[in-house]
Design goal:
The structure is a single chain. The protein is α/β, with parallel strands linked by helices and 554 residues long. The chain has 22 helices and eight strands. The strands form three sheets. Strands 1-2-4-3 form a four-stranded mixed sheet. It has a two-stranded parallel sheet with strand order 5-6. The chain has a two-stranded antiparallel sheet with strand order 7-8. It starts with a helix and ends with a helix.
Length: 554
C-alpha cells in the first residue's frame, strides 16, 4: 500500500502539468453507442478515468520521455505507437483472466469498452513487449510516392491506389473507439502531422447498422473515389464479414459504382486470444478493384452465370492450393477455401452488365459458397482410398451440420483446438446453433462430443443435426458401446446397433448405404491418431459397423 500511495503522490505532483502538455488525457468522453457504456456503468466522464494512478504515471512518463528524447519526426511516431499499444494492454478495461494462464486481456479484445470489477495492471517490465516495436527497414526507391489520409466522400485529387476499410452490417463503431487513443495522441499528432485532423469525425462516419442508410452514404463515397481513379489505378477494399446478405449489398454497391473485382484474398489480421468469442473473425478479405466501363456490354441475367461461377470457384481454390503447397505450413484454412466461393462470385458478378435483384445476387453467392464447400473435401475422407469422384459426390450432398461435424473432427486430428476455428467453419457453412455438439468450448481447448458423449442427445429434436444420417451413425456407435458393456459380446452388440440403424433410417439406409459406410470408415481411422485417443473405443466400434455395412445385401 505504501508503494501505491507513493504512486498517487508522484502522479499528483505532475497531473496538471502533464494534462496541459498533453502527456495524459484531459478530454471529456463524448456520448455514443460504445462510449455510453463506461459513463453508464462507472460514471466515468473523462478518458483519464479509464486508467488507474499507476497506469497514468507509467504512460505519462513514457510520453514525457518521447517529448524530451525523440530527435526526429519518425522517432516521435514510433514512440507514440508504442504508448498506444501500452494503453491498449494496460487500462482498467483489461480483464484479468483468472485461469492457469493469468494473462491480461487487451482493452479492445472484442471492439468495445467493457468495464470490470477485477482488471489487470502491468508493471513497466511487462509493458516492454508492447512498447518496443521491432521494425524491419523498407526503402521506397521512388521518392515521388505520397501517402495521404482523407475522407472518401470529399476527396478531390487523383490517386493510383486507393485503400479503404469501411464498416459493414453489424459494424464496429470505430469512430467512437478511436477516441480512446486520440485522447493520448492529440499533442504529438498535431506536431508530426500538422495537416491531419485530430478528432474522430463522428459526423462523417459511414454507419452500417441500417442497411438502406449504409448504402445511401457508402455509395456516393465509392463513386467519388472511382471518379478520382486513374485509368489503370487500383482500389483496395478491406472487407471483414462472412454473411451472404452483406456480400450481396457490397456487390450491388460495386456494380452501381462502376467497379470490377479482379482478385480477393483472405489475410489473417486478428490473432487468437483466450477470451475472444462470438462473431470473432480472424481474417480480412482484401478485394482488389478496377474501373470498368459497361456501356458497351450486353445485359446479362444472373441465371446465365452459374457455370462460369463454378469454373471461377475451382480456379480460385486450385490457385490457393498451389500457394499452400509452396509453404512449409498451410496458409489457408478450410474456411478460407470455402469462403473463396464468395470471392470468385464477386469477380464474375462485377465483370458484366448484370441485371439481378439483391435476393438473386444473394442466392448466387450462397450457391458459389456451397459449391466451394463441396469442392474442399477434408483430407481424412480423401485418404480412405475411395475413388476421388465418389468421395466428392458424397461430400457435396452432405448436410451442412454433417460437414461441420466432420470439419471439426479434422481440426482435432491436426491438434487444432481453438474455438475461433470451429466458429469460422460454422459461419462459412451457414449454421449457428452448434453449441450442443461441443464437449469442450474453452477458447484454446475446444473439441466436439464423441459418439458416446452425444449418447441419446439430439435424436428426436428440432435441431438440424438430429435428422442427419451422420447423427444416426453416431447413435449406432453409442448403442453398440453401451450394449457391449451390458453383455460383453461385441459381435452381438454391433449386430443390434446395425439393425437399429436400418430401422431408424428405413429406405434411406439403402439409398445412402455408400455414404454410411464412408462415415464409419472415416471414424474408424481416429483410434490410430495420437490426438484422438478419446475416440479409441468409439472408433473401434465404427470399424466393425463399417464391415457389416459393406457386406450387407438386400
Amino acid at each position: 500500500m505504501e508503494r501505491e500511495m507513493k504512486v498517487v503522490e508522484l502522479l499528483k505532483e505532475r497531473f496538471d502539468e502533464w494534462q496541459q502538455k498533453g502527456y495524459i488525457p484531459s478530454d471529456m468522453i463524448e456520448e455514443g453507442y460504445n462510449t455510453n457504456q463506461v459513463i453508464r456503468e462507472r460514471g466515468w466522464a473523462y478518458w483519464h478515468q479509464l486508467f488507474n494512478p499507476r497506469q497514468l504515471l507509467l504512460h505519462g512518463l513514457l510520453m514525457e520521455l518521447i517529448d524530451r528524447e525523440a530527435k526526429t519526426r519518425e522517432e516521435k511516431i514510433v514512440g507514440l505507437l508504442g504508448v498506444n499499444r501500452c494503453c491498449n494492454r494496460n487500462s482498467k478495461l483489461c480483464q484479468w483472466i483468472n485461469d492457469d494462464t493469468h494473462i491480461n486481456a487487451q482493452t479492445f479484445y472484442n471492439q468495445a469498452l467493457n468495464t470490470f470489477y477485477n482488471y489487470g495492471c502491468r508493471p513497466l517490465n511487462n509493458l516492454q513487449e508492447f512498447y518496443i516495436i521491432p521494425l524491419s527497414r523498407r526503402y521506397v526507391k521512388n521518392k515521388n510516392i505520397e501517402i495521404k489520409l482523407g475522407n472518401a466522400s470529399d476527396t478531390n485529387y487523383k490517386c493510383h491506389i486507393w485503400i479503404t476499410d469501411p464498416p459493414y452490417a453489424d459494424a464496429v463503431n470505430y469512430h467512437e473507439l478511436s477516441e480512446f487513443f486520440l485522447a493520448w495522441d492529440r499533442k504529438f499528432l498535431k506536431e508530426v502531422f500538422p495537416d491531419w485532423y485530430t478528432d474522430s469525425k463522428r459526423a462523417l462516419a459511414i454507419k452500417g447498422s441500417d442497411k438502406e442508410t449504409f448504402k445511401e452514404t457508402f455509395l456516393p463515397a465509392m463513386k467519388n473515389i472511382v471518379s478520382h481513379m486513374h485509368e489503370n489505378g487500383y482500389f483496395i477494399l478491406m472487407f471483414t464479414h462472412q454473411d451472404s446478405e452483406v456480400f450481396a449489398d457490397l456487390t450491388e454497391i460495386l456494380l452501381e459504382s462502376g467497379l470490377m473485382s479482379v482478385n480477393a484474398w483472405s489475410i489473417v489480421t486478428e490473432t487468437e486470444d483466450s477470451i475472444s468469442e462470438g462473431n470473432f473473425v480472424q481474417s480480412t478479405v482484401s478485394v482488389v478493384l478496377k474501373r470498368i466501363d459497361k456501356s458497351n456490354l450486353e445485359p446479362v441475367f444472373i441465371e446465365e452465370l452459374y457455370p462460369v461461377g463454378k469454373e471461377e470457384v475451382e480456379r480460385q481454390i486450385n490457385l490457393m492450393y498451389e500457394l499452400d503447397s509452396s509453404q512449409q505450413e498451410p496458409i489457408y484454412s478450410p474456411t478460407d477455401l470455402e469462403l473463396s466461393g464468395y470471392y470468385a462470385a464477386l469477380r464474375v458478378l462485377t465483370s458484366c452488365n448484370l441485371k439481378a435483384t439483391n435476393q438473386k445476387i444473394k442466392e448466387f453467392l450462397d450457391a458459389m459458397r456451397e459449391y466451394a464447400s463441396s469442392f474442399v473435401v477434408p483430407d481424412g475422407l480423401k485418404s480412405l482410398g475411395y475413388d476421388k469422384d465418389f468421395v466428392y459426390d458424397i461430400w457435396r450432398k452432405m448436410d451442412a451440420y454433417e460437414k461441420f461435424y466432420i470439419r471439426g473432427i479434422e481440426f482435432e486430428t491436426r491438434g487444432e483446438r481453438r474455438i475461433g476455428v470451429f466458429q469460422d467453419a460454422a459461419r462459412s457453412l451457414g449454421i449457428a446453433d452448434y453449441d450442443e455438439l461441443f464437449a469442450e468450448r474453452k477458447p484454446n481447448n475446444a473439441r466436439l462430443k464423441t459418439a458416446t458423449e452425444l449418447g441419446q442427445e439430439m435424436v428426436v429434436t428440432k435441431h438440424g443435426f438430429s435428422s442427419t444420417t451422420l447423427r444416426m451413425c453416431l447413435l449406432a456407435i453409442n448403442n453398440a458401446v453401451k450394449k457391449t458393456e451390458e453383455i460383453t459380446d461385441v459381435a452381438e452388440a454391433v449386430e443390434a446397433a446395425h439393425e437399429m440403424l436400418k430401422t431408424k433410417l428405413e429406405t434411406k439406409y439403402w439409398n445412402e448405404k455408400s455414404k454410411i459406410e464412408l462415415i464409419f470408415r472415416y471414424l474408424s481411422r481416429l483410434e490410430k491418431i495420437n490426438t484422438m485417443q478419446h475416440w479409441k473405443l468409439d472408433s473401434q466400434i465404427a470399424s466393425y459397423l463399417a464391415e457389416r455395412i459393406s457386406s450387407d445385401r438386400i
